[in-house]
Amino acid sequence: MGRTNPTYRDFLADYEGRWRDYRRALRHEAGADFERLFERARRHADAAGYANDPDRETLVLVSMLLAHETELRRLRERVAELEREAEGDTDGGPR
Amino acid sequence: MAFAVAVTDECVRVWSRAAGEQASVREDRRYTPSLYAAAPEDVLTTLRERLAVDPKVADTGFERRFTSLRADDRDRVLRVDCERPDELRTLAREVRCVHEPDRWAPGTVRLYDVDLDPTARYCLTTGTSPVPEADLRSLSLSLPTAALADGDPTELCCDGQRLAETRPADEGAVLRALARRLAARDPDVLVLSSADLVPLLHDWADALGVDCHLGREAGYRRLAGANTYQSYGRVGHSPARYSVPGRAIVDRSNSFLWSEAGLPGLLDLVERSWLPLQALSRSSIGTVFTAIQIREARSRDVLVPWRAREPEAFKPARTLHDADRGGFTFEPDVGFHEDVVEVDFASLYPRIMCEYNLSPETVRCDCHDGDDVPGLGYSVCEDAGFVPSVLAPILDDRADLKATLAEADPDGEAHERLAARSDALKWILVTCFGYQGYRNSKFGRIECHEAINAYAREILLDAKRRLEAGGWRVLHGIVDSLWITPRVADPTPVADLTAAISEAVGIPLEHEDDFAWAAFVPQQTGRGGSLTSYVGKVADGERFKIRGLAARRRSTCDFVASAQRDLLRSLETVTATRRPSVTASVASWPDWSEAPSTPRTS
């Protein structure tokens, strides 16, 4: 294992390092968002490692997109929940 | 049926004892160990002429043998009988460093059967079983380390009991007491706290003129001197080795297997490997596994290469990229989880080798052109594989032992004996996979290693799919284990799912543990989960299962370890009350200001 190419997880750590200059120039708020991007890429490192595509940068991007999609789903569900609650309040409450 | 074999330049002495009888010795003065050379025909002829005049060589001849597991036909090889067993390695080195460079290109002459243990070689060559016939009698001798360093035998203990009756004691009296014990018990096995006791006791006996010797006859032999070595960044000490006539010595300070498996475990492995007891007791697991393989190779008429020569086969870069991967590890769901179940595949890697017939000679064989190994496109031969035929009996026997163990009285002597044998086999199973990828392995091959990992990844992902379909969520998974928690209100029972998965995969998936809660922890850098660190509180009981945390590491001092364990226990209150509270305080932790912290040994 790792005789020929670094493992995907090692690659990801290295790849994040390559964005150091980019990260340095970001403002405070964006910096935290940027770190979250890689945190989320890591969350799917198992699937990316198994897929093992030689184009590893695409694997990183898809992992980030997937985490994005998960977050959207979570927010959509939350919005729907809040809407239901709001509607409930409107239906039952005095006008 | 021998229990001690001594190979010297003059003769081989084989000690055996039938039940209820005295030990007897048989001498073999005609034994000449052989090594083998393979090379093109003209080279072998010239080599034979050169070796025939060497005084170390007793005889030479041509034979037909398999020179590799993959060979379809026997090759004509040169057999070289060596006059003295001790000179066999010297002879091999001379062939490689003098004869070969003189006439031929490097690697022209390949040598076989060179570095076998001399006693095991004798047993295998002559068909002398090193498995004891009668129950062995053993006697244990120990001396505190400081006394041993001082060369003072007066504190010598026999079976845990101090031999001297007075204090301070007289060396002569201790030796006479020891001689009486030895005569009364007449042991076959001496279990010594350190092999250095052998020269120490004999030197004292000589100096004082006391008739006391550890063997069944006077005298002892030093087999090897002490040395210091480095392994994985650690400096280790390998003590000197000794033998005494008629008794097998087990050096407790230099026997991993003794501490793990005891005498019953050692004897089980003697039977499998044909390494005589004394040689086996000081062997590493890898050496024992290799010895078991050598025995199987001999039964197939395959010679044992001196230097493993199984270069990696050519393959496309893409295949190399696909194949060069380990088992599958999930990203852990970092955090605290309640109601967690751990399921494990039992002995996954050895079972994969057996189930899918993976062996150095079956993977990418010449006779089949299939797409057998998932994702790699390697073919696997249908002929019974070498490694599976070594492992299958070990797996079967261990499964039987575990089944018997489950029914045995946990406090009984039989239970202890069965557990020891089961542990000995467990270590062989743990080692066998790594040896496929080890470059000095006698019968390893990297493609076999890759194929095993490829199957392991598929098996774990298949199990994940079935568990998810059954209403469970996978929190984490490492190579052969999965941690799951219910995803729906009424999931399929774990037992039904493990049975279905075991059936589908052909390898038993066992319900290992139920945890009231389990926590997968982040890396120390705070970035992502640590793949191999977790803690679980076993559902019925006080037990914690800890992996990878400070409390479990050998490098952690007692203070930190016990503090961490206290903190873990305090998590109990959190689960009960659902709110954090002060449950441990520094005052209750051990007083670290007085005792110097020492590295933990367990």
UniProtKB/TrEMBL annotation, chain A:
Tell me the keywords, alphabetical order. Coiled coil
Q: Name one Pfam family in it.
A: DUF8156
Q: Domain DUF8156 spans what residues?
A: 1-90
Q: Does the keyword Coiled coil apply?
A: yes
Ranges in a coiled coil: 65-92
Which InterPro entries does the protein's record reference?
Answer: DUF8156
Instruction: Report what the protein is called.
Output: DUF8156 domain-containing protein
Source organism: Haloarcula rubra
From TrEMBL, chain B:
Q: Which Gene Ontology molecular-function terms are recorded?
A: DNA binding; DNA-directed DNA polymerase activity; nucleotide binding
Gene3D superfamilies membership? Helix hairpin bin, Palm domain of DNA polymerase
The UniProt entry's sequence similarity note says: Belongs to the DNA polymerase type-B family.
Q: Which InterPro entries did the record assign?
A: DNA-dir_DNA_pol_B, DNA-dir_DNA_pol_B_multi_dom, DNA/RNA_pol_sf, DNA_pol_palm_dom_sf, DNA_pol_type-B
Keywords, A to Z, come to:
DNA-binding, DNA-directed DNA polymerase, Nucleotidyltransferase, Transferase
Keyword Transferase in record? yes
Residues spanning the membrane: none
Q: What is its EC number?
A: 2.7.7.7
For this entry, the protein name equals: DNA-directed DNA polymerase
- Could you tell me what reaction this enzyme catalyses? DNA(n) + a 2'-deoxyribonucleoside 5'-triphosphate = DNA(n+1) + diphosphate
Stored SMART domains:
POLBc (SM00486)
- Fetch the NCBIfam families from UniProt: PRK05761.1-4
> Where do the DNA-directed DNA polymerase family B multifunctional domain residues begin and end?
294-573
Q: Is Nucleotidyltransferase among the key words of this record?
A: yes
